[in-house]
Design a protein that fits this description.
Order of helices and strands of chain B: EHEEEEHHHHEEHHEEEEEHHH
CATH architecture of the largest domain in chain A: 2-Layer Sandwich
Helix content of chain B: 25-40%
Strand content of chain B: 25-35%
Largest interface: A-B, 60 and 50 residues
Number of strands of chain A: 34
Number of domains of chain B: 3
Number of helices of chain A: 23
CATH topology of the largest domain in chain B: Uridine Diphospho-n-acetylenolpyruvylglucosamine Reductase, domain 3
Shape of chain B: globular
Oligomer: heterodimer
Radius of gyration of chain B: 19 Å
Number of strands of chain B: 12
CATH topology of the largest domain in chain A: Aldehyde Oxidoreductase, domain 4
Structural class of chain A: alpha+beta
CATH class of the largest domain in chain B: Alpha Beta
Chain lengths: 955, 293
Amino acid sequence: MTVRFTLNGKPIALAVDPGEVLLDTLRRSGFTGVKAGCRSGNCGVCTVLLDGRPVPSCSVLTARVDGRAVTTIEGVGDAANPHPLQTEFLARSAAQCAYCMQGMIVSSKALLDEHPHPSEQEIREHLTGNLCRCTGYVKAVEAVRAVAEGRATGAAPAPRGPETGAPQGGPGTSPGARFHAVGRSAPKVEGLGLVSGKARYTDDLAPSGALTGRIKRSPHAHARIVRIDASKALALPGVHAVLTWKDVPRVPFSTAGQNCPEPSPYDAVVLDSVVRFVGDRVAFVAAETPLLAEKACDLIEVEYEVLPAVLDPARAMDPDAPKLHPEPDKTGIANPSRNLAGRVEASVGDVERGLREADRVFEHEYRAQYVQATPTEAHATVSYLDPNDRLVIVTSTQVPFHARRIVARLFGLPISRVRVIKPRVGGAFGAKQEIVLEDACAALTLATRRPVRMVLDRDEELFASRTRHPQTLRVRTGVRKDGSLTAIEITTLANTGAYGGHATTVPSNTGSKTMPLYRAPNLRFFAESVYTNLPISGALRGYGAPQGYFALDCHMDEVARALGRDPVEFRLANAIRQGDEDPIAERLGEGKAGYKRIIRTNGLRECWEKVREASGWDPWVSSLAPGETGRPGSLPWMRLGKGVAFAMHGSGIPGDDMGSATVKANEDGTFNLLIGATDLGTGSDTILAQMAAEVLGVGVERIFVLSSDTDNTPFDVGAYASSTTYVSGGAVVKAAEGVRDRLLHHAAAMLGEDAAGLVCEDGAVRAPSGRSVSLAEVASRAMYGEEKEQVAFTASNVTFDCPPPFAAAVAGIEVDTETGRVDVTDFACAIDCGFPINPALAEGQIQGGVVMGLGYALSEEMLFDARGRMVNASLLDYKIFSSVDTPPVKAILVTTHEPTGPFGAKSVSEIPVDVVAPAIANAVFAATGARIRELPLTPERVLAAIDGLREGARR
Amino acid sequence: MLDLREIRRPASAAEAVRLLAESEGSGLYVAGGTILVTSGSRRLGFLVDLTSAGLGGLRVDTAAGSSGTLIIGATVTVGELLRATEAGRPAGGLLREATSWLANHTVRNLATVGGNLMAWHFPTDLPPALLVLDASVRVMGRSGERIVPIDRLYAARREVFARGDLIADVRVPAATPGLRGAFEKHGRKRLDVALVNCAAAVRLDGGRIAEARLALNGVGGPPARRPDIEAFLAGKEPSPAVFEEAGRMVSAAVTPRSDHRASAAYRTRLAGVAARRALARAGGVLPVAGAEE
């Protein structure tokens, strides 16, 4: 049927299928600024204006827009003629991955068109249909307010946000120099394309004619495939391939994208004759359309022998528990006959002796739940064969080089026959540090020799991508009368689900990230990671530390209150100090021995001072006796409370992570920065460009970033472990210095001066004499003059240091004591991330990390029925925070100057998540007297805890 | 993408009814479509789109004898209802308060009032308010047109609503002067399917409760008024204790189900809290915390 409507002001007539939704019509017509997120009206990344009002285009049949007017992000404005909202979102660094921002800007435009002067609350109410996982909504709401209040920065985005002064040490800094590029809130290098629907994400890059790939999934938690028959599916016209376990090579591997030698067990194969969780892979299908692919999946006949399943990690190691991975070809599993995927143990001193020497011993158990990363862009991969028959994989990944290596091995291809391209990524958070679709998509392309695109449905993203490890943690401490700690022991049982990618490394970080924060002479960490017939655990922002800090920093709160001490002073008195050595770093590395770690910078106390000011921390909270309830709130049944938490984290994986960068000079005095580092929306492309610009003495606009493409950018392990600024940044500095040195050499010849006295600044090379020559002239000489050369330099960076950022946070909450609902009224988080290269982007990391942590603390939980099926696999029922649930998070940067980090920088991306759950749980205690040791603090769980107190009081 | 053969866009409700009848079981009505269109790719024969069938618009019937009934077309969107000044009138804004809890901002611009009433499998937010406001719906179908009180629509759905019937509009009578309403919704987060929601309206006369109305949704069975509570409150002096007792009676009477969103026991608690708070607000009593159980 033909539908006629007005699209971005112009009449259009399109032939559509009656069942087609507007989202798909727009995308296939080239309006790919409209994104697909959940296809259920909950996330809003597909928002368009229908007759001027925002609607989710996934929920509109195109046939029904006949005669109406549709406006997409492309119609709101473009780089040549931007809408003030687009300019402002960019200028304020409101867009991180920006996948959701197209919809958010469209919604905001409708608001301002109707109400030019909305309040902050009205803005937040208006954005309830636009979920964001990166930003915490703070900067987006500020941007809308700025436009509404006429405070917009105008058409040319100028650097905004706090400036952090000059760096005072670390690679890249030289004494006496001015600093023009780092320490400033430069707008993102992607420019206005990022906020006008022009940025290309994986699914936007599918070649025309690409087949749609789809995975048929297991309905059983544990079963053997006795018979599988694809003949009916293959008979369906338009179905090009069905692959089962018989059709793909059996090569055990780990889906975790980690460095070699890979620390995780090789317990997965591309397709297997045994399925190990509800949603496990049964077969791959490639068909002409998504609908056909789905039909083909339904037509595959599978006969299962259902096997006993183990869903409780506490039972997984029982002798009679069903075994998940008994096959002899699997390697690296700690003990397959006990379902033990990984095991970590590390000690300092003697914990038992330490506990004996203590005046009091405390022991508590904490539980952390299954949660999922929920990037607004689900996992997506496109693969095709290039004209030379090389396999090209375009994929939304954090680890392009690991993906290349793993896929090549799985299909017996030389590395040289595989090219992996990482385009713009719509959020990842660890879930994309995994081979989730790349192997499946590649298998279908190899089988059909056709381009194939695969995008996970939202429910698949939730139950079949990767999750945070649920853990049960037991903390024991010994404390002397003077408040000093004699021993800390953390033991944990982690549930790695059906497969063990990150099975050892995540739990080991639960210990290594947390154990050094509070000083004690005797330490012990013990972790076991077990298989269950549930979804696969993996990397997720914080990587084991959020579970550890929930346990440790709640425990510290409990100990301090039991001793009648101020919980903050108790923590500060015991906290690690500058100059201390991390006592456990050498014994507890990344699933193996680690490296010596000296704390060279520690801004924890200043973080606390800043957060105390910002949060209005009130001593009454800390003097609250157990069982006493907090201050009255806005209504008689409401109680107010504040809770505190501290954390430290790391910057990369010492001795393991490597970043590389190539800087190449062009004859006009601009530079290409080629990096294997993967910007996931975090802004690392901008930060790394700022570093190069600083060294080369040019504006950031002269640096053109390419990240990342295994054919065209040098190796980088990828974006994980809070490594990019610290590790890859170090490589960028070295590469830029290499280029600078060659430019100075050429300039010296041109100026007749000694190169040693020359500096690059303001786009020129200057001599002490005052003479100068522009970089364009210098670069032109190199290219066309007497000493012809392409000025370029490639450098790598490996570090054996892992300087921790520090954080202090205060959560302010209001608890409805009759329903158990917890509202977060305010949240302040101060972080010492060394020298912030881009303060606005660092703030964005904090705000987004805190809001992700709020979901972890209060509302996110994957729930399963008795057969292991996830029962809340939608964004309606899996509750991430919306604009109206989220307080305006106060992000505070505390500057230190880390001597080992580029320009003094440390990491910032993961640590904000660490502090949230303990701060919230400690606040709930302060408000109600109820100590809840199980996440998330859902209304029902909080009410049950309050009930428990009331019963206790009656007894 | 829906597996859909055809979509028909009739210009009148009568034509819509006829088209669906002709489909012999393979057709479905669609209004906002927010549930149907996102329900996956199940096979559908054809859809009869009601949004061009003349069922939009919102007006106050000022004809003689109508006493100012608010007539809300079935395809009026939730967004339109929220913006309509007329919708703010009944019982001190009860209808608007309930509407403001519905869905998220973008879905509101698609979701319709009629669709909300027909979403049987969710405890949606409009039914309790409309029950308390003594609303009725105009139903059209093969057997003609009739006015059905909204409590009958839920309590006796199979009797009053046949296959092929559609809701043409919702009629909210002008509320009794002095009737004041309040709406309470409890979900896991602000944006949620209600675990329990509740509408109350109270009219005071001479310091006593002349009339109390209460309806809940999500507490087991269809959304319904609570005549037991209403009778208990009639004639009483409004006080924290009275509403506390009403809430207690509600919790004792309801039999909600457990699901992945909440346990039955929790919903039972919420029902009492929601009823007490809504009644107390409607009854003009300052908020007080319930006595600890």
